[in-house]
Amino acid sequence: MSFEINGKAFSQTPRAGQCLRTFLRELGQFGVKKGCDAGDCGACTVLLDGEPVHSCLIPAFRADGHAVTTIEGLASDGGLHPMQQAFLDAQGFQCGFCTAGMILTCVSLNQAQRQDLDAALKGNICRCTGYRAIEDALDGKTNIEEVEAGEAFGRSLPAPAGPLVVRGAAPYTFDTEIEGLLHVKLARSPHPHARITSIDKTAALGVPGVVTVLTSEDAPGRLYSTARHEKAWMDPDDTLMLDEVVRFIGQRVAAVVAKSEAAAEEGCRKLKIDYEILPAVFDPAQAIAPGAPVIHPDRTTEQRVANAARNIVAEAHGEFGDVATALAGSAATFEGTFTTQRVQHAALETHGGLAWLSEDGVLNIRSSTQVPFLTRRALTEILNLAPDKVRVFCERVGGGFGGKQEMFVEDILALCALKTGRPVKLELTREEQFIATSTRHPMRVTVKAGADKDGNLTALQLDVLSNTGAYGNHAGPVLFHGCGESISVYRCPNKKVDAVVAYTNTVPAGAFRGYGLPQTLFAVEAAIDELAKQLGISPYDMRRRNVVKPGDPMLSPQGYGATDVFYGSYGLDQCLDLVERAMQAETQKADLSPDWLVGEGIALTMMDTVPPDGHIADTTIALCDDGTFDLAVGTAEFGNGTSTVHRQIVASALATTVDRIRLRQSDTANGGHDTGAYGSTGTFVAGRATQNAAEKLAGELKTFAAAAMGADVATCKLENDSAVCDGRRLSYAALATSARQQGMTLAATGNSGGTPRSVAFNVQGFRLAVNKGTGQVMILKSVQAADAGRVANPMQCRGQVEGGVAQSLGAALYEEMIIDDGGRIINPRFRDYHLPQFADVPRTEVLFADTYDTLGPMGAKSMSESPYNPVAAALGNALADATGIRFTSVPFKPDRLFPLLKEKFGETP
Ligand code: FES
Ligand code: FES
Known about the structure:
With about 900 residues, the chain is α+β, with helices and mostly antiparallel strands. Helices cover about 30% and strands about 20% of the residues. It contains 26 helices and 31 strands. Strands 8-10-6-17-14-15-16 form a seven-stranded mixed β-sheet, with helices on both faces. Strand 23 (about 630-635), helix 20 and strand 24 (about 660-665) form a beta-alpha-beta unit. The chain is globular, with a radius of gyration of 28 Å. Bound molecules: FE2/S2 (inorganic) cluster (2 copies). One FE2/S2 (inorganic) cluster binds near residues 39, 42 and 54.
């Protein structure tokens, strides 16, 4: 077979049945990505004779006699195609995993297709951006700024990896070649609850290419949690690497290691596994009822399972004041029960990793993780290895959203590498991602609220039942967080919380952007609106009257007030004003038939800028011989933009430009500890450590320059890559040379322990129309105001808000993992799950409050998760405004809305 790739002739022959995607990657074209291998995401897009195709759907032999263009070949002479430049100028990417495919689709569009991007881009999914920055790229907009030395912070600087991302050259987890690589596939349970009585490996080991099969007999017997937190006691020890009992459909049963993926898959199919079926329970209310099947009968409170006999992982109960009495005496009251569903992160890069032993006996793990340091810690404990014998690192990560704050592949990869002594690879399929990683916790939230005749809240009560699935990773912390800021943002003398999280025989839930708040806010923000309506007060004024103000304690009865959370800045009042003004501003009226009902709704969120109980970052900065800087931080970059912000902090503190700062990150071999990229901490915690190191180094540079020039250090300042003392200038390169001659390196380390913490705020507003005859929802206007302190990078921060709103809109309107009566997920594919596509996402107007956080780095606060939180709640309030019906269950799919609309408005033709 002969064909052309990027203008070069090739004559390789694909394996029987091989698709073009894997064939191209085997030929080194790593810009061709896998998001689904089913034709649904577009990450694998290439041009075949100039036409965009999903290469995962094309048999490789079809390239015979044709010309294939991958992102690597889009531009000649190492330059950039205008579309690649446009994506750079607009920064039309975040994690960048979709970008190669997106650019290739965009370059192929003709004028007519450009006029109908909704249709033209329907084959390319981006999970990060919310598509607006991509539309900006197509419109030729420039969103980035150029700045002088020392002026980086607060400006819209581009991501340092941008040029590599648009060329398809940014290395992700699997974009490397390793000699002698073996492949791991996992046999998974078809039963929701069963005991494995025997595994016959004989036929599997007989499959040509199969090297070994590992079962529970080969795995360590130490219990752990897949959740990664700085403090391990935040999660229960309830998981074994390979267990003799399976508790959900999709749980690992055995690992087959083989010379090819196909052989490993065949080996899995050939395993003869016998099970004793155990009774299962899928509903959390049934799970905690007397007589329910017990899912983890042997777990104890020492292992941090609150009540194993009742399938309760964790619970929280507390009250201050007297809610019942307050409700009885209130002028207005509301009670309602709200339910949220199971949704998936759907990061475009699935979980996966590579593991190998280097010659010095170090176990190396390169994986798609948000938490390399915590993963290394877990591996050393589970496998009883010395910390210096394990290295965990990540390259660029293709989206995380909390789903990679877990250890879903690294443990089994480590075991396979240690048992075989060979390098091994495990890359989850999209289906495995759905059935065997983690999801958002579905919750049932009953809210009771009361207010006096003036609209002052008198009582606020939450009763929460959360479903953690078969394992308790993040079960307690998500529950506690969900019952925290959702009500502590309101001043109210009487509050009560009763919250329980239950095991069920379903796929485990875990960390997901917002960490419990989107679920509880859905109920709380509805209650605030309903009280306002009863009292004839506007939703804005109701909130203004009741939200905490600087100086107010932030109280949630489950733990009262955290002692290390302060108002480092306060912009909630501004956010409410900004959204109110924007919603009132004249916008083009939609031309709608009378079947459409129009309404508006808002919701707010407060979010601590760091999770409780410790988040650590250590940073090192060194001046290099050429006057540039080497910056080492531990946190990972997965589209959240921290690698840009950290360099901005250093550039501002050291009077240089970001291009003169080399960044090394997310590698346990790289020095200082970092808890990881979760809890919106990349800017706030690692940023503080970076600022700390940069300011120390600035002091050192001035001291050294003063000594070198015989000047008073008080006269020294840093300016344009130089130290200036007494009007005399010494460049950083000269300082470095001088230091080296004296046997010194000019360097500094910085640290942050994640405390004290501040609070960030967001307010979301929607105007929407709902069709009373069909239940269809159309977003007419979307506005979000954010208090991110001094905004470190307005373009990036806007992207975080746009992306958060888009992801949350998917969850609020249609995303849902559907589990049948037997505990099986029936839609574990993008095609049946419905991620937001270009056409689904309205443009959100993003507005920033003008504040400066005294606790954050250079005045900044976090803004990764919180934009997600108020979206479903604001939509619910807008639907209620439009229809007069309080819809209490997400997603707001037409078939869910329709029955109630029909009941109220009758049959509509
Ligand atoms: S990987 Fe080919 S369309 Fe998703
Ligand atoms: S930037 Fe599009 S999926 Fe991450």
